[in-house]
């Protein structure tokens, strides 16, 4: 893989090529080749970036019309550079190139939706004279920026999840300090370079690259950061919230997403969709389909169709157009997933396909049947190419099994019965309930987020922008 040439990290409109701790190599998960060299920032770099953002907020020199222009031009520029950004995603994250192009296209929409929402962000009229005390007064509200935003993004969607933090912040008028995942900073830096070239004033967008323990901790605990947006694992996310009790901390965390397949549902379509939903980007998605509950009356047919589909998945180099599944983000994660499969087998589960590691170090996509509810594959977020299959007898049993989790991001149900669909919508304790769709489905304008250990926010430009602003009441009396 040819390395990417990057200018450095972005602080106050400048691109320092090294950080407080020098530089570090970004290596491809697939073959270990060097993708890029990036600065290794430290606490002093974070202080400079936050100070620049705070100064930008005080200058107030990025008016809404200019922000809308930048957002719209970024969407257009991304659209003409899809191949370049897709290659960066594929190299740094081992995301198959066809899937990487899909992520880049989604980032275009995220910026476009943010621009549209920035145009209509407004307060409201308050009927002050509805009470005696308010007689003669005119009241209205303004939506004002919450302050400096600290954005911490994950490795699995290194472009679009950065877009979901940066674009709404720009729309809301909040300066940003972004810390991309240390494994995948290339796409974020390329995006920052694009935004910088389109006229974002100094300090309104800063990018500091480095480890979570150094850069992330310094960022979330900084006194001048008002808002923290984090996407990642539940333990890390809730630890961040504990470190910043007086800030607005918004978390989009993991899940072990369930899929229920009823006898009256289109189980053939469910199996076809799961072939992708459980294994795209090697299962490394917060809403990757993981726990499948299938009615015993259609379980044999569904299982046969799913296993056939999973066995046909193409493994290989992420830059190969035919590859559907490539490497996990690290060898340690590959070893962990293999251990979880072995634990389930020891507890009585059966591996119907996959679960072994190829000579190239790729984990073959696995379907595991009858895993006990106490093992990691059922209780925790696998973040790997594995789904579990469990048979059930009644719809109420399936709903209870799906709810038996500490996570609550998205769930899917296949049924043609409207009553069951509404029952699922009322009963399933998740941020999203997808009817006749896999839980892995997401459009970028939807309110996306979870409950319980899956987080405390809703992303999607309209919802993120509202959260990044505060309501200010203005009362006028002649």
TrEMBL record:
<dbReference type="Pfam" id="PF00171">
    <property type="entry name" value="Aldedh"/>
</dbReference>
<comment type="similarity">
    <text>Belongs to the aldehyde dehydrogenase family.</text>
</comment>
<protein>
    <submittedName>
        <fullName>Aldehyde dehydrogenase family protein</fullName>
    </submittedName>
</protein>
<dbReference type="InterPro" id="IPR016162">
    <property type="entry name" value="Ald_DH_N"/>
</dbReference>
<feature type="region of interest" description="Disordered">
    <location>
        <begin position="1"/>
        <end position="23"/>
    </location>
</feature>
<dbReference type="InterPro" id="IPR051020">
    <property type="entry name" value="ALDH-related_metabolic_enz"/>
</dbReference>
<dbReference type="InterPro" id="IPR016163">
    <property type="entry name" value="Ald_DH_C"/>
</dbReference>
<dbReference type="InterPro" id="IPR015590">
    <property type="entry name" value="Aldehyde_DH_dom"/>
</dbReference>
<feature type="domain" description="Aldehyde dehydrogenase">
    <location>
        <begin position="20"/>
        <end position="474"/>
    </location>
</feature>
<keyword id="KW-0560">Oxidoreductase</keyword>
<dbReference type="InterPro" id="IPR016161">
    <property type="entry name" value="Ald_DH/histidinol_DH"/>
</dbReference>
């Amino acid at each position: 893989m040819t390395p990417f040439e990057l200018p450095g990290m972005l602080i106050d409109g400048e691109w320092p090529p090294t950080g407080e701790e020098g530089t570090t190599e970004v290596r491809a998960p697939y073959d270990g080749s060097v993708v890029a060299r990036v600065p290794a920032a430290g606490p002093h770099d974070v202080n400079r970036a936050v100070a620049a953002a705070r100064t930008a907020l005080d200058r107030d020199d990025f008016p809404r019309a200019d922000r809308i222009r930048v957002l719209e031009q970024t969407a257009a520029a991304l659209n003409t550079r899809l191949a370049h950004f897709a290659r960066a995603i594929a190299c740094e994250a081992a995301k198959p190139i066809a899937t990487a192009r899909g992520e880049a296209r989604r980032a275009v929409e995220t910026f476009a939706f943010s621009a549209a929402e920035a145009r209509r962000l407004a307060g409201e009229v308050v009927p002050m004279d509805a009470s005696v005390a308010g007689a003669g007064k005119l009241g209205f509200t303004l939506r004002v920026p919450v302050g400096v935003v600290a954005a911490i993004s994950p490795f699995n969607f290194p472009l679009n999840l950065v877009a979901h933090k940066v674009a709404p912040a720009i729309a809301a008028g909040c300066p940003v300090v972004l810390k991309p995942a240390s494994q995948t900073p290339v796409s974020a830096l390329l995006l920052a370079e694009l935004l910088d070239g389109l006229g974002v004033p100094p300090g309104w967008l800063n990018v500091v690259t480095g480890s979570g323990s150094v850069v992330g901790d310094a960022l979330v605990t900084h006194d001048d950061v008002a808002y923290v947006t984090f996407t990642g694992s539940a333990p890390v996310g809730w630890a961040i919230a504990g470190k910043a009790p007086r800030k607005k901390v918004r978390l989009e965390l993991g899940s072990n997403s369930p899929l229920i397949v009823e006898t009256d549902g289109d189980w053939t379509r469910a199996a076809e969709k799961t072939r992708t939903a459980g294994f795209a980007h090697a299962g490394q998605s917060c809403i990757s389909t993981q726990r499948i509950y299938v009615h015993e009356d259609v379980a044999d047919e569904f299982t046969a169709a799913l296993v056939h589909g999973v066995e046909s998945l193409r493994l290989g180099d992420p830059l190969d157009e035919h590859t559907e599944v490539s490497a996990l983000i690290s060898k340690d994660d590959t070893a962990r997933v293999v251990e979880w499969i072995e634990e389930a087998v020891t507890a009585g589960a059966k591996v119907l396909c996959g679960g072994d590691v190829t000579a190239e170090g790729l984990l073959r996509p696995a379907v595991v049947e009858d895993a006990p509810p106490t093992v990691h594959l059922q209780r925790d977020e696998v973040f790997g190419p594995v789904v579990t299959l469990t048979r059930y007898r009644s719809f109420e049993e399936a709903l209870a099994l799906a709810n038996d989790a500490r996570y609550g991001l998205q769930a899917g149900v296949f049924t043609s019965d409207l009553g069951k669909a509404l029952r699922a919508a009322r009963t399933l304790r998740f941020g999203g309930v997808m009817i006749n769709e896999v839980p892995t489905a997401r459009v970028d304008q939807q309110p996306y987020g979870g409950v319980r250990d899956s987080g405390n926010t809703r992303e999607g430009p309209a919802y993120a922008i509202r959260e990044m602003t505060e309501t200010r009441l203005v009362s006028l009396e002649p």
